[in-house]
Amino acid sequence: MNRMPENEPNAKWDAALDKMFAEFRAATPDPEPGADFMPGLWRRIEARRANNLWIFRRLAQVCVGATLALTLLMGAVLIPRLEKAPAYTTSYVDELAADHPNTYVDVFTGDIK
Amino acid sequence: MLVDFELIERARSGDDGAFNQVVQAYRKRILGTIARLIGRPEDVEDVGQEVFLRLYYSLDQLRTSEVFEPWLYRLTVNAAYDYLRRQRRRQESRMSDLSEQQVMLADAAAGGKRSEEEQRRTRIRERVEALLGKVSEEDRILLMLKEVEGLSLKELEKIYRVNENALKVRLFRARQRVLKAFEAESESEAGSAGRTNAGAK
């Protein structure tokens, strides 16, 4: 690591710290994994997998339940309204005629009068 | 790389046998790094299993096999960081359970059974632990990776996903904080040793 110029007086402490880290590295060799390391790891992987499956299943159940409830609610609210909705009593042409009572089309010439 | 890219590709595609081989190739190195990062030998395997568990469930997010090692180190750093944060929270309650005298008696009893070399190693470990206990988990892990694990700036860039300049600044600041604690500790030790010698005369 690059040392900044203002830290030059600290060279003694820097060197001592480096030495201590080197001694620490030598004092802590890589440990041998225990006999249960791999079986333990696979147990945890399986447990997480089962847990994820459970969560997914639960989420799916909640989604299905919510969809069903929403469908029923929409059915309960909308169906009676649709049934009561007023039917059209007049045609489009009748409505136009009512809007323009003094206008008519001359069937012989095609003019609008 | 301790394994070839083809094996990692197979593990990525869901081959449990290939994943097993990858774990067997890296577990010793990763356990060593964890041991030095967390400083509690009894929890090393537990944290190591957590690292490989996270690896198993995140391998599909790995872009290419070339970045596998930085990826594994990132998972290791994150697991160690999570452990140290949990540990710091627990430490206060644990320390209040034992009086200082009980702790010293237990240490002395354990020390009597060890060889001189082992005692020297234990002293070094405890000294580094005490020193790094005075700085944040971030500083501790960054310095350990650089100074003890011997990772290069390029490797650290890939692990931390920051550019070289930002990393240099972080490293410099972390080292300055540790140096400050180291100086204070060394001076107080020298002071107490001086007082002991004067008292003996």
SSE arrangement:
The complex is a heterodimer of chains A (113) and B (201).
Chain A: H1 11-27, H2 37-84, H3 92-99
Chain B: H1 5-12, H2 16-38, H3 44-58, H4 68-97, H5 100-113, H6 116-132, H7 137-148, H8 153-160, H9 164-200
Helix pairs in contact in B: 1-2, 2-3, 2-4, 3-4, 4-8, 7-9
Structure characterization notes:
The complex is a heterodimer of chains A (113) and B (201). The relative contact order of chain A is 0.03. The model of chain A has no long low-confidence stretch (mean pLDDT 82). Chain A is mainly alpha-helical. The termini of chain A are far apart. Chain A contains three helices and no strands. Chain B is mainly α and 201 residues long. Chain B has two domains: 97 residues, RNA polymerase sigma factor, region 2, helix turn helix motif (Rna Polymerase Sigma Factor, Chain: A); 69 residues, Arc Repressor Mutant, subunit A (Orthogonal Bundle), CATH 1.10.10.10. Chain B is built from nine helices and no strands. In chain B, 28% of the residues are buried. Classes of the chains: A mainly alpha (113), B mainly alpha (201).
